Q: What sequence folds into this?
């Protein structure tokens, strides 16, 4: 990659983050009345649904705290982060300590899920704000929340599985991937000294259960001891998830200077790129079948924004770590396709959901899942990777 | 004793539990700076010259990927990486774009031969040299190969380059089996045809140079493949799994162990199909690892080149190349799966650079290369010494100090301090004579030597039996009846003060030189097995040993020897039992295995005075034993510690007779080690030195507690070498060099002096050993020691003249000594004669010349002994 190209790209990501994505959410999403952030927004930022996603509160607070810590300590960023955290603290928790998935605009509970991802993203949020404000109290909350996530998601029997575990025991990649990412965040924001142990354990588990050299694929759900489940669930691959995991591991390899981890991350990326990239229309498929059989997921050939964000980070990081031109080529491919199809030049930010050929499916800028996270996290990471100061210090996830 | 036997049987049945080893984490890897190329290369020329790592040429698909039908592009850049640099630089260019040739690193430069480009295969050869001062690359043309070569291989042994042929044209079918060599030190450079590797002609063989157990460098070649054309016109691929070893001295090849039976490193077609087979390692890279291992990275198994219908699969559906890392061990002729590499790559070359094994670039899957440069830092072998073993060592060391204090009360005179008041039981003295000869170095070295080679040194250890009658009949009376404290007094009484001083000073110089090394060498092994750092081992031994020696004198020295002999013999016996009882087929199985590999050879019947052949061994056996038993104060002093001569004779016989079962035991342990590691090559430490193999076995395979006891015995044995040196040096300095000239002081004065000298020498020895551990001066020391060792035979010659000849005169003695030294200097500098002969040459020359000169000189100065 030439220095000119690097500079150009860095500027694209920096301006995208600071002049487009962030202002969009601060302007349209931030709820001045009740606190927190609204994510059910139309393409122009007008509210489509005013219920509040709990994930988004944590993720936005993480983003703002991280930018405050690493980019520029702007008081309005910290203020907004604290608003989300406050909303989380006041309305995010059920009486038994579990967190909700969805609440009303003013914070009354609507929905709880078995999964504890709300806790994971809240942990990242508290950690980022603790790192930004140099305070101990949110750091303790972050560690506590991560502990609860571990108990519920990474401990056998922690939460009721979707499928009867007696009939068919299953392991999913998601919890380990999220656990890995949150542990990395806790290390990089508040220097939590037990993070490395969890990172080791997550990577070991991921490699043992889901990274299948024999199939040259990263599986999403496996049976006991990594057995391939010849069913819809077991065969369904999620290239975006796998590529996100790959760059978490690449990041770890970079942090530790460990070529084994870099090799592992590159392999995961190689296989899932090969499986996930649509050679006909470009872009990454949402789901693929391990044996190329028909899928149950009806959105399988849609193009979602977030796998593309993750692939942009992963290919760029892989290129930075190996110097391999292939990754630069892939990065250009996925970057160009994404900016051409997802970006909304008129109102800013990205659309989230396209048809296979790149046509817009829904014009939403956010919903209960899409919010201020994957896109700005990609912009922040890539900017830092490409700029001088970014190369000097490890990136946070 | 019965209880011990039962315990042993039980222990042997259940060796220490094997921890579930994670192959992934055993290898320590490091990423070197990536090559400054977009895609990396297949078939680059890789090597080392001076301090620089060089990667030249290679081919890739830089225009368009192979899957899009892109053409292969050849390159001519020569990239250079110097130590500590974070970036490769372009050092220059090859004369043409080139890849898939051979590269061999020689001291004089990187030799690159053959290779191909898009059009043809070449025979050209060049020598690349990199000057780190002027940072410039130089290219010298060498004679071309007798025929073109691509996908062959080049290796260097010293200044000679060996090239295995491969393809001769661009057609994959044109392959020849040939080998050529080029001696770069010859005045006329020319390729010579050598014996080709046996088996069918092939290419992409995997080669490396490594040493055998006896130190000979050999060329190893594995696997490879052959392409043919089926009747339907489709290509056929034949991949090989055999291994061969080439001996450059005899120009012969020998078949060695084929590749191991393992699961498919890349079971692509379904999880249940983990076929166990001998998987080929076609186009893998290999390099020497540690003293006697070869490490092999990745390799193509050939399994996924063709589909079920026999058609070549498109590259995009073929998997990544295997990440498996194998090792071959030259001593046991065995394969082990060592672990995984970060990224599997083939068609490149691995080289050793700055203690790293570097695997630059290479193909990660068909059509795809990587610019990454992977480096193997080391192998992390599990296992620690443990608390219980450490406690055993601590108790043992404490017991030795207690002995020092116990005997200290009895040391009133120098007679007590040096001769134990002549009250030590003969059997203890006998064990001590044996124990003094058995240093920690020999305890570890004899099994290691037998493990690495065979039993040819065995007879050498029995030499004492041959000379014991002579020592008892002639030498012992001479020492005992003249009531001496040191051996060298005999030389003054028989000849002249000057001869005594020569003897005493020779001894002092030699022992002073040894002081540091006798602590340093075992400390290396002990540090490796206990996990203590080497300075701590040296300090611990040096301080404790000096302390008990200066307190307890010769009695402490002798009694700690006795304890040590029991522990070491017991430890060796337990090691032997554990191996034999655990081996398939028991003792018979071990013997059969060892015999089949030629490990039981007792006699090298060749007629060659430069090697340990039978004649050399027999001469060495007699004379190398004669030297310590007749002229070494450390041994002779012990003859003087018994009540009378009769008991001293018994002591000598005890030591001599003990050496027979003990030697059998130590050599048997060596063979047992060979058998054990042949069956469990995965338990070897690939980077560990061969001479520490027994120490490694003790720490990792002996049951907890017993391992501690034997390691304590090794500590004790190293201290026993030092304590003998300290006490006998102190005796010679006090007696021959001080009291001889100042005879009028009190006993208390001399005793205090002896203790002071012990303390000073102990400190000196410890300090020297620590300096050796800090700075690489050991080879310097070895050289000094081997020169000082030349004095041994001469000194024994003087004693032979004094004791065996009635006519010998002082002039004769001096002439004999000078003639012997001259002869030895000549032999050492001008001939290749085996070092085992030096004692015979020194002693013989001194005695013969001394006797002759004595006949020619007036007898008036001669006095009867």
A:
């Amino acid at each position: 990659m030439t220095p000119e190209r690097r500079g150009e790209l860095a500027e694209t990501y920096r301006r995208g983050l600071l002049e487009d994505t962030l202002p969009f959410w601060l302007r349209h999403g931030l709820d001045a009345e009740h606190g927190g952030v609204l994510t059910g927004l139309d393409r122009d930022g007008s509210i489509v649904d005013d219920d509040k996603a709990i994930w988004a509160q944590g993720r936005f607070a993480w983003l703002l705290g991280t930018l405050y810590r690493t980019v520029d300590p702007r008081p309005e960023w910290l203020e907004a982060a604290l608003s989300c955290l406050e909303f989380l603290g006041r309305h995010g928790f059920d009486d038994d300590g579990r967190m909700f998935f969805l609440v009303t605009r003013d914070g009354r509970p609507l929905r709880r899920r078995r999964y504890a991802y709300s806790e994971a993203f809240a942990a990242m949020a508290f950690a980022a704000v603790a790192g930004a404000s140099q305070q101990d109290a949110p750091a303790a909350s972050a560690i506590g929340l991560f502990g609860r996530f571990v108990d519920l998601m990474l401990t056998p029997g922690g939460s009721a599985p979707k499928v009867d575990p007696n009939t068919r025991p299953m392991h999913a990649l998601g919890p380990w991937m999220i656990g890995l990412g949150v542990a990395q965040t806790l290390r990089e924001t508040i220097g939590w000294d037990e993070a490395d142990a969890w990172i080791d354990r997550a990577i070991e588990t991921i490699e043992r259960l889901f990274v299948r050299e024999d199939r040259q694929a990263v599986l999403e759900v496996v049976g006991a001891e990594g057995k391939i489940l010849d069913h819809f669930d077991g065969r369904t691959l999620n290239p975006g998830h796998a590529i996100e995991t790959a760059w978490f591991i690449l990041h770890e390899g970079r942090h530790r200077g460990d070529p084994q981890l870099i090799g592992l991350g590159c392999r995961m990326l190689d296989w899932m790129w090969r499986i996930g990239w649509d050679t006909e229309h470009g872009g990454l498929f949402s789901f693929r079948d391990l044996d190329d059989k028909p899928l149950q997921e009806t959105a399988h050939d849609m193009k979602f924004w977030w796998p593309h964000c993750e692939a942009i980070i992963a290919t760029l990081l892989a290129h930075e770590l190996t110097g391999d031109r292939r990754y630069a080529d892939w990065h250009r491919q996925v970057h160009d396709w994404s900016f051409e199809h997802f970006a909304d030049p008129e109102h800013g930010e990205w659309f989230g959901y396209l048809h296979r050929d790149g046509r817009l499916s829904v014009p939403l800028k956010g919903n209960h899942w899409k919010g201020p996270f994957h896109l700005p996290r990609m912009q922040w990471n890539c900017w830092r990777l490409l700029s001088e100061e970014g190369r000097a210090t490890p990136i946070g996830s | 004793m019965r209880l011990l036997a039962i315990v042993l049987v039980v222990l042997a049945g259940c060796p220490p539990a094997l921890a579930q080893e994670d192959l992934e984490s055993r290898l320590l890897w490091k990423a070197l700076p990536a090559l400054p190329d977009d895609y990396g290369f297949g078939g680059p020329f890789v090597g080392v010259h001076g301090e620089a790592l060089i990667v030249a040429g290679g081919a890739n698909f830089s225009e368009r990927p192979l899957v899009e039908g892109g053409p292969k592009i050849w390159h001519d850049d020569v990239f250079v990486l110097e130590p500590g640099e974070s970036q490769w630089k372009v050092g220059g260019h090859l004369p043409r774009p080139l890849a898939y040739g051979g590269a061999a690193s020689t001291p004089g430069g990187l030799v690159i031969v053959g290779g191909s480009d898009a059009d043809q295969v070449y025979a050209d050869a060049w020598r690349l040299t990199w000057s780190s001062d002027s940072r410039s690359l130089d290219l010298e043309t060498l004679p071309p190969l007798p025929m073109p070569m691509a996908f062959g291989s080049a290796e260097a042994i010293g200044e000679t380059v060996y090239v295995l042929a491969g393809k001769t044209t661009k057609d994959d079918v044109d392959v020849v089996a040939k080998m050529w060599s080029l001696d770069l030190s010859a005045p006329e450079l020319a390729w010579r045809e050598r014996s080709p590797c046996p088996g069918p002609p092939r290419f992409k063989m995997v080669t490396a140079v490594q040493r055998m157990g006896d130190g000979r460098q050999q060329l190893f070649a594995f696997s490879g493949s052959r392409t043919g054309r089926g009747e339907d016109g489709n290509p056929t691929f034949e991949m090989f799994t055999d291994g061969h070893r080439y001996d450059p001295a005899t120009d012969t090849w020998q078949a060695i162990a084929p590749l191991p039976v393992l699961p498919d490193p890349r079971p692509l077609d379904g999880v249940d199909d983990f076929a166990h087979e001998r998987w080929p390692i076609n186009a893998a890279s290999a390099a020497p690892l540690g003293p006697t291992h070869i490490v092999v990275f990745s390799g193509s198994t050939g399994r996924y080149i063709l589909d079920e219908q026999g058609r070549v699969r498109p590259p995009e559906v073929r998997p990544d190349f295997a990440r498996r890392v194998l090792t071959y061990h030259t001593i046991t002729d065995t394969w082990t799966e060592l672990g995984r590499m970060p990224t599997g790559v083939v068609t490149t070359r691995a080289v050793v650079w700055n203690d790293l094994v570097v695997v630059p670039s290479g193909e990660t899957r068909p059509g795809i290369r990587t610019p990454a440069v992977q480096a193997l830092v080391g192998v992390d072998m599990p296992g620690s010494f443990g608390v219980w073993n450490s406690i055993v060592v601590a108790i043992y060391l404490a017991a030795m100090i207690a002995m020092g204090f116990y005997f200290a009360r009895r040391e009133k005179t120098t007679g007590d301090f040096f001769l134990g008041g002549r009250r030590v039981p003969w059997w203890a003295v006998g064990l001590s004579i044996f124990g003094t000869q058995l240093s920690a170095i020999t305890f570890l070295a004899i099994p290691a030597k037998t493990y690495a080679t065979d039993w040819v040194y065995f007879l050498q250890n029995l030499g004492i039996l041959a000379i014991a009658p002579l020592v008892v009949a002639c030498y012992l009376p001479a020492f005992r009846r003249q009531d001496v404290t040191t051996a060298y007094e005999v030389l003054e009484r028989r000849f002249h003060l000057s001869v005594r001083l020569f003897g005493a000073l020779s001894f002092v110089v030699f022992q002073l030189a040894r002081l540091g090394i006798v602590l340093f060498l075992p400390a290396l092994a002990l540090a490796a097995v206990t996990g203590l750092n080497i300075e701590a081992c040296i300090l611990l031994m040096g301080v404790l040993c000096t302390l008990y020696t200066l307190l307890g004198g010769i009695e402490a020295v002798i009694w700690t020897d006795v304890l040590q002999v029991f522990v070491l013999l017991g430890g060796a016996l337990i090691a032997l039992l554990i191996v034999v009882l655990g081996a398939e087929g028991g003792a018979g199985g071990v013997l059969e295995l060892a015999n089949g590999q030629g490990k039981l050879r007792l006699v090298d019947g060749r007629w060659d005075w430069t090697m340990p052949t039978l004649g050399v061994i027999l001469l060495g056996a007699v004379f190398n034993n004669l030297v310590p038993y007749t002229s070494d104060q450390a041994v002779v002093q012990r003859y003087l510690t018994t009540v009378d001569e009769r008991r001293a004779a018994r002591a000598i016989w005890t030591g001599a007779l003990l050496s027979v079962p003990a030697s059998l035991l130590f050599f048997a342990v060596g063979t047992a080690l060979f058998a054990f590691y042949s069956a469990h090559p995965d338990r070897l430490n690939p980077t560990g030195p061969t001479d520490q193999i027994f120490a490694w076995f003790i720490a990792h395979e002996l049951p907890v507690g017993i391992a501690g006891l034997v390691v304590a015995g090794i500590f004790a044995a190293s201290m026993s070498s030092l304590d003998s040196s300290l006490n006998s040096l102190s005796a010679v300095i006090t007696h021959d060099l001080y009291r001889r000239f100042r005879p009028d002081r009190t006993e208390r004065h001399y005793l205090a002096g002896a203790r002071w000298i012990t303390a000073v020498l102990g400190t000196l020895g410890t300090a020297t050993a620590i300096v050796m551990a800090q700075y690489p001066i050991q080879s310097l020391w070895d050289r000094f020691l081997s020169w000082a060792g030349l004095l041994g035979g001469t000194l024994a010659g003087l004693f032979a003249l004094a004791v065996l000849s009635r006519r010998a005169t002082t002039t004769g003695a001096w002439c004999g000594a000078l003639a012997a030294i001259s002869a030895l200097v000549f032999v050492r500098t001008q001939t290749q004669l085996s070092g085992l002969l030096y004692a015979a040459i020194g002693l013989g020359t001194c005695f013969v010349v001394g006797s002759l000169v004595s006949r020619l000189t007036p007898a008036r100065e001669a006095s009867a002994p």
Observations:
- Chain B is about 45% helix and 20% strand.
- Residues 1-23, 861-865 of chain B have pLDDT under 50 and may be disordered.
- Chain B has two domains: 35-379, 393-489+544-772.
